[in-house]
Request: fold
Amino acid sequence: MSQLRHQGVAAAVICSEPFVRLAKAQAAIAGVPDLPLIVIPHPLGGATQDEVKARAEVAMSQLIILVRELTQ
Amino acid sequence: MRDSGIPGGLQAYTDGPDDIEEAYEFCAVRGWCDGLPIIPPTPERVERMLMFCDRERDKPVIAIPPRYGDATPILLAANAVMAGCKPEYFPLVILALEAMAEQTFNLYGIQTTTHPCAPLIIVNGPIARELKINSGHGAFGPGNRSNASIGRAIRFALVNIGGANPGAGDMDTYGSPAKYTYCIAEKRTTKPVATIEPR
Reply:
């Protein structure tokens, strides 16, 4: 993802809440500290169909904001 | 090394106390130990450890992920002191970390995964007997200094230099006692288990 970002391609990482700290750390190490993160609730394993849909909705709203920002 | 944002990171002990209880507290609050007491890595002790190292003391052996901290012999020696290693154990600590640097080993994955895994050091050859590394009864358990302190020094390096702090760099769901220390010797007399020796 950092390579795409370096190439100027709009890119983001979807991660669940407990992984935000590690994701930010790795983005900084990879030289893209401003790499956008789409944050969804944890956990992913064992989620029901409704819970998966709810996470998708959380992600989608952030994605729309992100695309608007990147295309402005 | 870039700033990873992962907290902690033992870089020097120049301001650290000599008193053993104060040193324990000093390291514990900074996340530099496993929760158990440590030996203060004073310059004298680090120098004694480095007497068993023929490498350049400031030249990194490996950049340990996920922080990609430079594991120089001097920093590794500090961790080995803290873990309770005898100086003669030190070359093995360096060698084990050097082995983990191989790309196919995927140390980044091992360090950060939610799986409760830890690298196991299996020592083969005369050095295992020389350092009295247990390969028999209770090899994975407590009671042997070389097994305990070599494995512990490696874990200290993985955390203090590499940034495998629980919940920050290491996302292990529930952890493992193997992350305190995990070092044994190969038992050569037992068959039919094949040796780990390269063929």
Notes: The helical segments of chain A are 2-6, 20-29, 49-71. The first strand of chain A starts at residue 13 and ends at 16. Chain A has a mean pLDDT of 90.
